[in-house]
Amino acid sequence: MEEAPQRGRWRRWWGRGVALAALALAAGGCAEPWNNPYPAREARANIYYTDFQERPKHLDPARSYSSNEYAIIANVYEPPLQYHYLKRPYTLVPLTAEAVPKPRLYDARGRRLPDDAPAAQVAESVYEIRIRPGIRYQPHPAFARGPDGRFLYHHLTAREAARLRSPYDLPVRATRELTAADYVYQIKRLAHPAVASPIYGLMSGHIVGLRELGRRLDEAWREARARGERWLDLRRFELAGVELVDRYTFRVRIRGHYPQFVYWLAMPFFAPMPWEAERFYAQGVLAERNIVLDWFPVGTGPYMLTVNNPNRRMVLERNPEFHGERYPAEGAPGDRAAGLLADAGRPLPFIDRVVFSLEREEIPRWNKFLQGYYDMSGISEDAFDQAVRVGAGGEVSLTPALRAKGIRLQTAVLASVYYLGFNMLDPVVGGLDERGRKLRRAISIALDYEEYISIFMNGRGVPAQGPIPPGIFGHEEGEAGINPYVYEWRDGRARRRPLAEARRLLAEAGYPGGVDARTGKPLVLHFDVTGGRPDDKARLDWFRKQLARLGIQLVVRATDYNRFQEKMRNGTAQIFTWGWNADYPDPENFLFLLYGPNGKVRHGGENAANYANPEFDRLFERMRAMPNGPERLALIRRMVDIARRDAPWVWGVNPKAYRLLHAWVGNAKPNLMANNTLKYLRIDPHLRAARRAEWNRPVLWPLALVALALAAAVAPAVAQWRRQERRPPLEGAGP
Amino acid sequence: MIAYIVRRVLYAIPILIGVNLITFALFFVVNTPDDMARMHLGVKRVTPEAIERWKRERGYDLPLFWNGAAEGAGKLTETIFYRKSVRLFVFDFGRSDRGRDIGEDIRQRMWPSLALAVPVFLAGLLTHVTVALALVLFRGSYLDAWGTVALVVLMSISALFYIIAGQYLVGKLMHLVPISGYAGGLDAVRFLALPAAIGVLATLGANARWYRTLFLEEADKDYVRTARAKGLGELAVLFRHVLGNAMIPILTGVVAVLPLLFMGSLLLESFFAIPGLGSYTIDAIQAQDFAEVRAMVFLGSVLYIAGLLLTDISYTLVDPRVRLG
User: Fold this and answer.
1) Does A714 touch chain B (CB under 8 A)?
2) Domain final position from B59, B90, B121
3) Residue B280 lies in a domain
4) Predicted pLDDT at A730
């Protein structure tokens, strides 16, 4: 008798379930994707979406020195110069300056020298930089003043600061004009002990008086701290080598001739810093809320960082006070055909907001790019096969699945080098004698970097032929550019010399078949590496096997990062891998890695191999002060030939960057030197919204299937249990 | 009981000093102050002078434990250990070596961690107990046998697999929720649904099996048999008698982890880009930020001790036979 109401109950539940499912399916048909990680109101907004993998360490332009930090601050701070977005080779152009400054050279007695004077005669070079009037800072509470002219927020109380999450929570913001004094202030900050600028050591060797200023600031800061003060007004301190000429002009005096200084003027280290900003952020009540200059920049650039939650996201918003730079009207050959000049002369920036979301892991990052939630992406090792096909001739193309989505691929050889270095102070692999040279050259031939690039880098690199990577003056392509000690030119391409030649060189070095002819013992070399994690095993095995072909035993000495660095500083490493990314597009920035007085062990410099060839050093000292031209190229050729002959490095790889762009991204051209490129990009948000909706329709049937499967699995057991429950306790018991 | 709690709190002080000492020693065995300076200043163009200035500015130019050059108590207090440790005991974590206020960072990051950890904890407890009870209800049936096999399979799979498979199926193929990300307020539900479900599923195998064992042990006891003999239905027996008594070991195990919910989950937060505390310590170790490392280890120790204390107290609440003295 209870069966009928029971059935009725089941039917009601079933009916409700079907109705809910229908509702969900109807909702699934709506235009707005369910998996959109951004607020629905942004769906058609002019916003560029990108990601960051780890929180930046510093956003203070005097401290920041890594690419992930530059990706943000280069769009906020404006040094006097920048790189032309489109032109190649990379060309410096004015940003806030009126012109790219040319140094005036003086001898030791203060007499003006001609521009082409030999570097040895030059005692001082002077750069005079004139800033364009009328440039204004982004609106910021640091500039806000009351009716009496006093700053509103330079003396905040703990109560006033208690609810602040960002400086932009303060209601009044103001701006002021950029002046040359702000640039002078920033150069002084490089010497401030609390700022701890990474280039203080380097710049104090170049800028007259910077080291002396550093010493005075050390003392003054100690005293200020003892008095409980948190800010030093650097306007009170003189810097002998930096002079404020007038409101818009300043001069920098450089010791000797250092023409590369002009490139530093395009880096955020030399961006302007208004003293008001430093004063504002020096307040302890703000520091307790993590509202500091290192996290909330104040600049004149196209964007201002309005949200900075380094654990979640950072947001750049259009600076309403931006000085109206325009898109370049000329570029490299082919740029017009590629549509890169369509926006010539239009005011920058094109995008209203840039949202950087924290994305630690590669898999979600890649999938969100494919769903249209990131506008550009690199290609991780794991995703490479999904994204790219490599043809028999090494040509790369996108997979059909990505092409169908309208995704484009851009590649560029980076101005970087990853090399295998020999410690030239080591008695076995080092030295400039013929024995050492031949041993190193034998190893250089045996290490087949073409294979390395293919196996471990998905083909994303080119074997380096010398210390200067492609795109930098002095790099040569074709037959003229090959390293003749490792390659030969056959059938129109560079081919690695045969292993037999490596074996012959090894024998001539005194190690026939990998055995030391003097002692009869096998040649054992030590490869110093960091990590030694399971992931590295295949790579390290590869190195071992390559040298085993010569009979050389390679012993891997894995250690942690700190101990490895210590070995490098002490000169106890024997063979190691190292790398360098260009600071600026000048051959000096790579050849100085082989300059003797820059040796790591003796001088604490960046010459990790401790290579010191007097002839190379002499040529370097001449070359570094010369302008690019045939004479400089001739010197570079000689230097590169010396280095190739001595082989302190196995020249390794110049890596290639692969970048994917969605169809709605415009004006994108890889620029390996400039970091302030967001202002040139264009987005079609309507196309993006349409594609997102098309690619992300909710799929609900698997849920129903799982629910049905579960119900089907459980139902018989439930039925049995119900039968059991209805059975009288003693049913079936015997009399 | 109050005397017991006070005594346990006092015991915690030498434990925390010991933990701090060990953290300090281990950290500085691996990283010297020079290494820290190099890490913070970057790998390019760093001069010895810059390193000295960095250390001086942050107080890392002092000796580690003993300052022979100082006078009197200064021999102990003018050291890195004293300067960097003593304020922890009043929960003043100070500034990180990267310049951020650690207390503020923890306050900001603990909410997203809790937003994920609390639902995972509550839904997990409910689901695991329900599944275990269901298996006990159907014990001896095919559902019990295959259910137990399924639980063993579930507990044999790495948590990472659940995360990747969950993101792939639910986020990528079915497009139901964002693959990763976070938002405040109610919108957080969209971002937390998948990681919370994965958090529950990833621990289902181990927990439900354990609970099932506890329930089965209770279900065979005399008082349960008596209840059945008196004609009580199986559901009533399970919920009124078995569940209540088996909850004692479950609750005591659960209470111990309550305070640690603040610390978040490294894997879930990392893969789902949830800005919690889970990855804070790992980030700090990678960045060689000693100030953050010691603060997080100290906080973890305090929460762990608090968890053990709560466990002791919970015994007295759920089992009247236990008295703390």
Assistant:
1) yes
2) B90
3) yes
4) 52
- Judge if B114 and B58 occupy the same domain: no
For the question of whether the overall pTM of this predicted structure is more than 0.90, the answer is no
The verdict on A713 touching B (C-beta cutoff 8 Å) is yes
Beta partners for residue A390, in sequence order: A396
Confirm whether B97 is domain-assigned. no
Does position A734 have pLDDT exceeding 50, yes or no? no
Q: In this structure, are residues A262 and A90 in contact, taking their beta carbons and an 8 Å threshold?
A: no
Nearest residue on chain B to A28, judged by CA atoms? Answer: B176
Number of neighbours of residue A732 by Cβ within 10 angstroms:
6
Q: Looking at the DSSP assignment, which residues form a beta bridge with residue A305?
A: A316
Token pair of A39 as six digits: 């607020």
CA–CA separation, B120 vs B116, rounded Å? Answer: 6
User: How is residue B89 written in tokens?
Assistant: 């005991």
Task: Give the pLDDT band of residue A382 (cuts 50, 70, 90).
Answer: confident
Select from A382, A368, A310, A378 the least CA-distant residue to A54: A310
Is B103 within 8 Å of B93 (Cβ atoms)? yes
pLDDT attached to residue A3: 45
Mutate to test the interface with B, among A165, A219, A360 (most CBs of B within 10 A): A360
Q: Where are the beta strands (DSSP E) in A230-312?
A: 242-246, 249-255, 303-309
Asked whether A447 and A422 are in contact (CB, 8 A), the reply is no
Same domain, B278 and B163: yes
Q: Is residue B313 part of a domain?
A: yes
Smallest Cβ–Cβ distance between B174 and the set A39, A699, A713 belongs to A699
- CA separation for the pair A546, A446 (Å, rounded): 6
Please tell me the distance in Å from A187's CA to the nearest CA on chain B: 16
Please check whether residues B171 and B253 belong to one and the same domain.
yes
The H-or-E segment that residue B124 falls in is helix B102-137
If asked whether residues B45 and B114 sit together in one domain, one would say: no
Residues B110 and B84 occupy one common structural domain: no
Segment B190-214 mean pLDDT: 94
Task: Please report how the helices A561-570 and B33-41 are oriented relative to each other, as an axis angle in degrees rounded to 10.
Answer: 90
Kindly report, residue by residue over A176-231, the tens digit of the pLDDT.
999 999 999 999 999 999 998 989 988 999 999 999 999 999 999 999 999 999 99
What count of other Cβ atoms lies within 10 Å of the Cβ of residue A510?
A: 15
- Give the amino acid at A405: K
CA B197, chain centre distance (Å): 18
Verify whether the Cβ–Cβ distance B45 to A54 is below 8 Å.
no
B214 close to B128: Cβ distance less than 8 angstroms: no
Residues of chain B in contact with residue A288, where contact means CB-CB under 8 angstroms, are 101, 104
- Of A135-139, A305-309, A537-541, B229-233, least confident by mean pLDDT is B229-233
B225 and B304 both lie in a single domain: yes
Q: CB within 8 A of A109, min separation 6: which ones?
A: none
Number of domains in chain B: 2
> In which residue are the tokens 């690039």 written?
A453
- Start-end of H helices in A477-594: 499-508, 537-548, 561-570, 588-591
> Among residues of chain B, what percentage have pLDDT more than 70?
99
Nearest CA in chain B to A607: B45
Q: Are residues B147 and B82 in the same domain?
A: no
Q: How confident is the model at residue B325 (pLDDT cuts 50, 70, 90)?
A: low
- Which of B25, B55, B90 is the last residue before a domain boundary? B90
What CATH number is attached to the domain comprising B283? 1.10.3720.10
Tell me the residue range of the domain where B220 lies. 106-324
Residues in chain B closer than 8 A to A269 (CB atoms) = none
Q: What share of chain A has pLDDT > 90, as a percent?
A: 81
Q: Where do the H-state alpha helices sit in A483-536?
A: 499-508
Question: Same domain for B154 and B273?
Answer: yes
Q: Return the pLDDT at A11.
A: 55
Classify residue B96: in a domain, yes or no: no
Question: DSSP H helical segments within B59-101, as ranges?
Answer: 74-77, 80-85
